[in-house]
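Try this one yourself first.
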């Protein structure tokens, strides 16, 4: 979640603003302290500001006729300031210095483009010809010759990083519409040149970058209203060959028909960028604004209109944005939290919003705090109910007033009472009239029960938990530790109900349930209570070998297909195992697997977990999915009978997901080759069958049309010719 908070003016930019920044702002750099920033104007002045106090701490100017040509930076090691005026004259001073004519001066042999200051390292000086020197090396011989790395190219942007203890400098140049990226490591005398992949209809306008795990990620803001990402590895073998860097689309700056014409941008974290530009909608006047975008979910998170206009420059330090707005330098504080889908789509509401309840995290509360939380939730619901029923306010309050003392007493009873006593108390609690706060009360009660289960292994009120899940609209987020305890107890019946009823189960928990169901023995399942409603209608138990036998109904094709190029050695020997006439698992395990198929999931988050599934379990699960797929294909409507039976789409999605996760393993395993071949033949036969149906589709439609045109008599014989 990202948001723009309060804004304030740091200083004026006009000559009457009091700080002499009338020529415009050249750059803004961080100072030695977290709350300090250095402002360099396009004339002669550099000013140090304390942001929280909104006042200048120091101001330094060069003589008339001289111009500061490089942004002033702070040497974080020595707390000195470094500036370059007239392209070649280097100045270094401290806070107590007033007159820059009397501070250290050095005239260099080449023109300076930019000075980059790094924490715990010497500043890097980048020359317009592409040469780089650390400041200490440069000061040893200011007139030393600086090599020209680039020829007829103009530097457009540069940035410095620290990789371990090694400084790294990256800069972008332009020549005749082509853009090049240079990567330099001054201490290692290493230089790499890359060519940026061209885009026919647009050019890059602004750049920013960050480093992570020895890879520099370069972000480019293009004139096509898009942000592209370029990956630059730090480890390279060939230093002479020029390579072309390919780019990938990171973000489209458009929303609801409006397009943001960005001028500059900065990276906030791995999922957010801030863009300054003009938001233009068709038929409307464009408006300059500051925006925050979520690159993970491609959404606009926050926006602030800037009616007085900007210079197109944007800086970001210490969770604060700096930009010119009209004739002042404005500071906007922002907050940027971990990215989530709820925040990205704007469904994560502020806890202070009227009418929205602030639910407590019951997992971190003790029993007394649980009671206080329940009471606060009940009070909030009562207030809401009383507002909705003003005419019968007194009666409503009397009828729904919760017995908080009963809830509190019960939470205390949970601490020490036996399982039977707790279940009796729960029955009495649930037998009372339900109140609007009942859901919050159930959340408190279940959390207290789970906390007791964690500390007391002998305590497990299974009957109550099953009853609550079956009869109440609960969710995983309301009692997140419930399924973890059920997994520890191997309570497959409770897990089955949770998978069928909870809409928000994390993919990791779904995978863990699948792994437990596949690994658990049939003998253990025979002693447990499992709901068989999803399987009992389409499978039969064969008493001799306890396998599940089904009647094969041919759906327009023969399952015993002719042998072809997909034959695998040993298929005939393993055909009985791969045959879809028998279910590869027992009915109880099949019912549990059906519950997994019924659970909602995201492929992106489930796939990494599925790759950890043991090979033998993956093959067994795939056999069962293949069996279900054949069973669905036997029906004209491709629907399995029963309650909460898996659909054909769920089966196919899981088959594809499992093959994506384990395809290489499946190909290498001898026992899986016959299964893959059988699946291939079955699918191919279906493709042929539906292809034949498509050929007569026109005739079938004509029959339907003729039937609708006339009403036949009660008894008639008609002869229809299919051409």
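Now uncover the answer:
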């Amino acid at each position: 979640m990202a948001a723009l908070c309060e804004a304030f003016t740091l200083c004026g930019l006009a000559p009457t603003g009091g700080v002499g920044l009338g020529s415009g702002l050249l750059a803004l750099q961080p100072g030695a302290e977290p709350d300090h920033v250095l402002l360099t104007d396009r004339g002669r002045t550099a000013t140090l500001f304390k942001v929280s106090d909104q006042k200048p701490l120091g101001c330094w100017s060069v003589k008339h006729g001289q111009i500061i040509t490089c942004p002033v930076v702070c040497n974080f090691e020595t707390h000195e300031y470094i500036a370059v005026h007239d392209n070649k004259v280097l100045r270094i001073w401290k806070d107590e210095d007033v007159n820059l004519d009397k501070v250290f001066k050095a005239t260099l042999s080449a023109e300076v483009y930019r000075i980059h200051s790094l924490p715990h390292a010497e500043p890097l000086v980048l020359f317009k010809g592409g040469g780089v020197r650390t400041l200490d090396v440069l000061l040893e011989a200011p007139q030393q010759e600086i090599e020209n790395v680039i020829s007829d190219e103009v530097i457009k942007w540069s940035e410095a990083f620290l990789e371990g203890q090694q400084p790294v400098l990256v800069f972008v140049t332009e020549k005749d519409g082509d853009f090049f990226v240079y990567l330099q490591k001054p201490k290692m005398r290493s230089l790499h040149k890359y060519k940026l992949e061209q885009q026919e209809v647009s050019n890059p306008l602004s750049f920013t970058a960050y480093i992570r795990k020895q890879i520099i990620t370069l972000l480019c803001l293009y004139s096509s209203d898009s942000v592209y990402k370029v990956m630059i590895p730090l480890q390279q073998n060939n230093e002479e060959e020029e390579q072309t860097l390919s780019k990938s689309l990171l973000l489209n700056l458009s929303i609801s028909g409006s397009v943001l014409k960005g001028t500059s941008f900065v990276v906030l974290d791995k999922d957010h960028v801030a863009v300054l530009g003009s938001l233009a909608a068709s038929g409307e006047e464009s408006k300059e604004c500051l925006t925050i975008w979520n690159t993970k979910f491609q959404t606009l998170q926050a926006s602030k209109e800037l009616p007085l206009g900007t210079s197109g420059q944007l800086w970001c330090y210490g969770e604060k944005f700096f930009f010119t707005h009209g004739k002042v330098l404005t500071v906007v504080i922002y907050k940027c939290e971990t990215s989530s889908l709820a925040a990205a789509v704007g469904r994560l509401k502020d806890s202070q919003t009227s009418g929205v309840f602030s639910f407590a995290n019951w997992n971190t509360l003790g029993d007394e705090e649980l009671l206080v939380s329940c009471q606060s939730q009940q009070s909030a619901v009562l207030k809401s109910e009383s507002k909705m029923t003003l005419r019968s306010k007194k009666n409503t309050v009397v009828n729904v007033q919760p017995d908080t003392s009963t809830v509190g007493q019960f939470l205390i009873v949970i601490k020490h009472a036996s399982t039977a006593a707790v279940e009796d108390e729960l029955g009495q609690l649930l037998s009372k009239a339900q109140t609007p706060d009942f859901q919050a009360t159930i959340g408190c009660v279940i959390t207290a029960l789970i906390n007791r289960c964690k500390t007391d292994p002998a305590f497990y009120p299974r009957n109550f938990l099953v009853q609550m899940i079956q009869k109440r609209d609960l969710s995983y987020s309301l009692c997140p530790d419930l399924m973890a305890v059920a997994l520890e107890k191997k309570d497959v019946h409770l897990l089955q109900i949770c998978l069928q009823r909870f809409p928000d189960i994390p993919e990791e928990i779904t995978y863990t349930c699948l792994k437990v169901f596949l690994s658990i023995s049939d003998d253990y399942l025979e002693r447990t209570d499992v709901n068989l409603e999803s399987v009992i209608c389409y499978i039969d138990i064969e008493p001799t070998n306890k396998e599940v036998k089904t009647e094969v109904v041919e759906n327009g094709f023969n399952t015993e297909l002719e042998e072809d190029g997909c034959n695998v050695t040993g298929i005939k020997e393993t055909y009985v195992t791969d045959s879809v006439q028998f279910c590869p698992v027992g009915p109880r395990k099949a019912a549990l697997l059906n519950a997994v198929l019924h659970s909602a999931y995201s492929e992106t988050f489930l796939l990494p977990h599925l790759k950890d599934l043991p090979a033998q379990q993956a093959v067994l699960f795939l056999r069962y999915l293949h069996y279900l797929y054949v069973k669905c294909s036997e029906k004209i409507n491709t629907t399995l009978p029963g309650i909460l039976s898996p659909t054909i789409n769920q089966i196919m999605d899981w088959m594809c997901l499992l093959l994506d996760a384990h395809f290489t393993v499946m190909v290498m395993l001898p026992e899986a080759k016959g299964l893959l071949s059988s699946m291939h033949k079955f699918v191919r036969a279906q493709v042929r069958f539906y292809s034949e149906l498509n050929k007569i589709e026109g005739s079938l439609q004509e029959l339907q049309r003729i039937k609708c045109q006339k009403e036949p008599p009660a008894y008639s014989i008609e002869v229809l010719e299919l051409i």
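Discussion: The longest helix spans residues 670-695. The longest strand covers residues 258-269.
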